[in-house]
Each structure stands twice: as structure tokens, then as C-alpha cells.
Amino acid sequence: ACGPSPANAAPPPPVSPIRQVLWDWNGTLLDDLTYAIGVRNRTFPAFGLPRIGSVAEYHRQFTFPVRRYYERAGVTDETFVAVAHAWMAEYVRGFDAVPLHGDAVETLARFAAAGVRQAVLSATRRDMLESQIARFPIRAYFTDVLGLSDIYARSKEAVGLDYLARCGVPAASTLMIGDTLHDAEVARAMGTGCVLVARGHQSRETLLTAACPSWTRFWRRRHGRGADRAGPIIMKCAPRPARRKEAPRAPHPFPPLRPLHGEAPHPCALAAAGSPLFFFDTGPTFRRCARRA
Fold this sequence. Notes:
This protein is 29% helix and 16% strand. The protein is of the alpha/beta class. A six-stranded parallel β-sheet has the order 3-2-1-4-5-6, sandwiched between helices. Strands 7-9 form a two-stranded antiparallel ribbon. The protein is globular and about 50 Å long. 33% of the residues are buried.
């Protein structure tokens, strides 16, 4: 699970192979950050609330539960329900223009090819979530779509715990991928691993406070010398198809990470021996606790 651990804590257990990924939706697979800011600027002024001028300002205000974010924006208890419904109506009205992140479909396909079960765990109302996902050619990748019963985006922790208790995949083999601190909180409550994507509704600086690996994209093609050091994150799925015997096999350009001498492995280090997936993060989180094999 994500989060700092005391200096005298027992070493974490070996990382289990990842068998299941729980995806957040908004900001993680769905590229709706700019759209959500526009929705706010089209609805909040009708309630006497100011527009927001930049992504940085939005990142400073956004949090979970969404009611707390609204409070930071000036929404009162008396106007919260009306503002929430106005915001949602405007969000739904123009949703057909919202895209997925450019690498989302290929990433889902790579997980599926590696035999990893996938589900969506979102704070969006479930019927709305299903209709949003149906717009894209990705529904078949998900065994389940998990959402809330209302539009107020309080917390998806209870939904996640219930699902994990009945899905048949242990927490140690499950990974939560999201774009907010709430995703890290939910992962911690479920006891799963967690990776946060710093291109959604909270900034990288905010996400780093969760002590989880923080990426700006799911994977990146790199070739040539130094490819494993280029960019903030590289994700490769394995195993690869076997090459023909007569073909020379080049060394894998992204060898697995292992702990520094005498140190316990990072609890979020996913490049474990035996895992069907290899995750490579060249940012400071992994450099502090891992080196090239």
C-alpha cells in the first residue's frame, strides 16, 4: 500500500505479481481536466462565484470529497446541492467532446495482453459512468464498472472495499491507478498498491505527498542508449512473444529494479520478479530505493 512507513517498521513483504488493476476514470483514463475547468467557469458565476483562471489555481483548490473543493470555491451549505446539479448538467451536456488520454487505449490493451484483470473504480454516479465509458471502444477491457449512487462524489472507499472482498483477487495482487490523493487513500484502505498519474485533477507536487510513484504518462517509447533514463516514466508489459530461435536476442533495454544493498524494497516498487508487468519509474521515488539489476 502507499504511504510512508516508520523507520523502525518491519520490512514490507515481497511484492506480489499484479493480477488486477483498478482504474480511476476522470483525469486518469479520461482527459477531462480542461473540460472540467470550463464547466466550472460556465456554471459557478450564475451563483455569484468567481471564475477560475488557470490549471494551477484549479489544482490548488481541488480535493475530495468534492464538497470540500466546492467550499474552497465559495459554495455554501445552502447552495451546494443546486451548484452540484448545475455543474453536472453542464458536464453531461458537452461530454461528447471529451477525449481519453492519448495513451489510454493502448495501455488498457497492454494490461489485457499481459493477462491482468481490469475494473474502473470511480466517484462518478454509476449509470453516468457506464454511459461515459460506452462512448469509447474500451468497455470490453473491464470486468466491472464501479461507481457511486449519487452525483456528490463523497468517497469511493466503501465501494472499493466491497468489490475487493468479493472479486476473488487479493489486495496484495491489486494495483490502484488514479490522479488524486483520494485514490491513494482508497488504495491504503484496501491494502493495495497505488500509482498516481500527474496529469489530472491534482498536481504532481500534491500527489508526491502520498509517497506513491507519480507518473505524467503511462508509457513512452524510447530507443537507443540511455533509453531507460529518458523521461519520467516508462512502462512495458511482459512477457513478450518468444523470438524465433535463430534470431539474435538483444538484451532487454529496461532491466528490473532491485533494492539498494541492505535496504528493504519500496512497498510500491512493482518491478518484482515474477510479475507479469514491469514498471519503470526513473523519478526520485525509485532512485532512492532501487538500482539497476
